[in-house]
Amino acid sequence: MASFSSACRSLVRKLSRAPCSAQVQRSLLSTGISKEAVGYHVGGGPSYMRGTVFWEPGKPITIEEFHMPLPKAGEVLIRTKACGVCHSDLHVIKGELPFASPCVVGHEITGEVVEHGPNTDRGITRRFPIGTRVVGAFIMPCGSCHFCVKGQEDLCADFFAYNRAQGTLYDGKTRLFLRGNGKPVFMYSMGGLAEYCVVPANALAVLPDSLPYTESAILGCAVFTAYGAMRHAAELRAGDAVAVIGIGGVGSSCLQIARAFGASEIIAIDVQDEKLNNAKKLGATHTINAAKEDVIDKIKEITGGMGVDVAVEALGRPATFMQCANSVRDGGKQVDTSDQIKIIGSYGARARQDLPQVIKLAENGTFDLENAVSRKCTLEEAATAYEDLNRGRSSAGRSSRLCKNFCG
């Protein structure tokens, strides 16, 4: 269903004026939404919200109304302030990345804590009291699986088994239900392209007052992923020569982290001069336009025939993967940010360990957050933002951050 029918819209208007009848409640309960969620109000405020729904490849994303999502134990309800537009979402929308549908995409968010799930640990409520400004990481660690216990939250078994494989949180259920008919809608990470979202507390970190909501949305994915690649996979050291292939959201963040970690040569590779010019502002000491120059020969020339110590492939394409492999010196490292395979795999980072460090780096000015945002738009403009992203209309690799000014 791509949009509400007139009859359905009429029902929505009636429901907004009166409590749910027992018959309607039974209908909603049969779809899996709890009785409590049907009449759930946030702090005496709204009982429903709007969100962006991806239905299936080839169909337009639409804005729909949802029952207010109800957090469970260990989860937090966030009033979304900003959500990034990312290529990972675009891969889902285009059908290139299999995912449960219909779903709400959007996985790098900032927002304000408005509610805790029942029976949530007091340590969480003390760390994130109502009103706290937060950043959400796209990898949402369960905190209790084999990998999380070992500190490898970027490999969280429940995140991949439930969220990425099924579109749910870790009880096997979504928190999103359409207001008109109660049907469930799946969640890509937290489903951040909505006015509110439910996030496991392990995926959150406090956002200081000194950092803006909108620009800081990239901290939960683009910068987070780059930090994981450089800190854990590459183990980047001062004096290393680095090449970054693909200067999008992740690639541009890798440049800034390489500069912060003291890399000697920082080589940016892309096919768009606009992105390469921007790369110089973000720390690149050299740039290569792969459409005009031989990437391997140019890297060898810059490094005196040696190749780089670390090459980062931030696009996930076979051609650039091979360029990356041939750019590395003997004993060097190739990092692929799209998977966790050896040559050296890196997917995201570790939310509880790394997200606070990423925020500190942003707070001390390591990251040029403002320059990473090429455009701001509203929820209603989400479809256009993804179209622009698909056409490459972005200097920093992302067409916009979605400023949630409609949410108050």
UniProtKB/TrEMBL annotation:
- The lineage's top-level taxon is Eukaryota
SMART domains to which the protein is assigned, alphabetical? PKS_ER
Which ranges carry the Enoyl reductase (ER) domain? 58-394
Q: Which InterPro entries would you find in this protein's record?
A: ADH-like_C (IPR013149), ADH-like_N (IPR013154), ER (IPR020843), GroES-like_sf (IPR011032), NAD(P)-bd_dom_sf (IPR036291)
- Check the record and name the CDD domains matching this protein: Zn_ADH10
**What are the record keywords, sorted?**
Metal-binding, Oxidoreductase, Zinc
Where are the bilayer-spanning segments? Answer: none
Assembly behavior: Homodimer.
State the PANTHER family in the record. Answer: GROES-LIKE ZINC-BINDING ALCOHOL DEHYDROGENASE FAMILY PROTEIN (PTHR43350:SF2), NAD-DEPENDENT ALCOHOL DEHYDROGENASE (PTHR43350)
For this entry, the protein name equals: Enoyl reductase (ER) domain-containing protein
* Organism placement in taxonomy: Eukaryota, Viridiplantae, Streptophyta, Embryophyta, Tracheophyta
